[in-house]
Design brief:
By secondary structure, the protein is mostly helical. It is about 75% helix and about 0% strand.
Length: about 180
């Protein structure tokens, strides 16, 4: 195995361990020592791959973004053509994605959060074009669907609603908005 392959394998293990650390301990208690331990490397190894803790966190966030992009591409491949189902499934995926990683949300600025809305907004745009809906209606639909997504996430994370119930309600409410 070449040195480059070994280094990229260690870097990937550090990023994967960093994601686990972030999900388990959140941003305030993030520990490079625990990351190194999970990745089964010495405490000095993270500093050979990342300048500091912040750079590792940025690499973890980059991995989160890549995971989101891959997930949305998969969903778009299944539900092609800007259908109601595409809008609904991307919205449900957004809720589940945020619930799975609620501890990494504080690392993202509000501007970065909007990039996670993009696939849903694009699907709504396709749906509106296919349905010949004017821009005003499109704006209303975007606002309504995003409010439903954020509301579902908030209810689940605040333990006011079980995720199954929130997702079922989200599906039915998006269907009403798109009808």
């Amino acid at each position: 195995m070449s040195e480059l392959t070994k280094d990229s394998g260690v870097r990937k293990r550090l990023i994967d361990a960093g994601l686990k650390e972030l999900l388990e301990h959140g941003p305030d208690d993030f520990s490079l020592r625990r990351v190194a331990s999970m990745a089964q490397v010495s405490c000095a190894t993270p500093y050979r791959h990342f300048k500091d803790k912040d750079e590792l966190v940025r690499a973890v966030i980059s991995q989160i973004r890549e995971n989101w992009i891959l997930l949305t591409q998969e969903i778009k491949g299944i539900f092609q053509g800007g259908t109601k189902e595409l809008v609904t499934e991307l919205s449900v995926a957004a809720v589940r994605f945020w619930i799975a990683g609620d501890n990494f949300a504080p690392f993202l600025s509000l501007g970065e959060l909007s990039e996670f809305d993009t696939p849903v907004i694009e699907a709504i745009g396709e749906y509106c074009e296919n349905s010949s809906l004017e821009d005003v209606k499109r704006g209303d639909i975007e606002t309504s669907v995003l409010a439903l997504v954020y509301g579902a996430v908030t209810l689940i994370l605040s333990k006011r609603c079980e995720s199954d119930v929130a997702v079922k309600t989200l599906r039915s409410q998006i269907n009403r908005v798109l009808s």
